[in-house]
Please model this.
Amino acid sequence: MRILKDLYFYPWLSMQENNANTVFIDGPVPTLIDPGHARLFGNVTAAAARDGVDVGRPKLILFTHGHPDHIEATELFEEDVLRGIAKDEYVYMRQEGKELFLAAGAHVPGRPFRLLLNEGPLVIGEKTFLVIATPGHSPGSICLYEPKEKVLISGDTVFTLGVGRTDLPGGDPDRLAASIKKLSRLDIEYLIPGHGEMLKGRKAIDKNFAMILSEFFE
Ligand SMILES: [Zn+2]
Model:
């Protein structure tokens, strides 16, 4: 579905299979964020086609973090597509994060990640996002914030009515709490999480943060 000009959101609604939500940014630099599992990516392609959008030829693919349900489909795209992930997460995928791929019957993506992200601005076509380091769910989890339209792509750090799990390798509840507190200070109109439904409206989003910080971390 189209959220804003050149910004599309493909939530994963099946309860039977795990997959991450996918975001697509259209425009001069078509960008996929968290394409998900390889075997399920066809669903994203089909949903995008219904919106009149082609997600099959991205110039850039970004990952909020390196878990298989967000990243595995990266293997479907050509080697020369630019791929971006946080530096820490790149290392993590090859160390303790590796066992999650083995458990999922997958392998750590072999395609090159030529864009190792640090905190700071990231220009994608006509939009400028801020990369925000949000460790906790995994050591190199990031969120992407677009301050003009007040969009936060929050990966598995914060959801509508929930937070990312911290019981997987590299998870850390204290770091997650600190990350969520940091995000709660942003001015957000569109909260686009890595799983579940998106949340719209500053008031609802502030309420969501307040609920999460009191329910999960106090
Ligand atoms: Zn995850």
In short: Residues 2-217 form a domain with the Metallo-beta-lactamase; Chain A fold (CATH 3.60.15.10). Helices lie at 41-50, 68-71, 87-94, 98-103, 173-184, 202-217. The two ends are 36 Å apart (CA to CA). The mean pLDDT is 96.
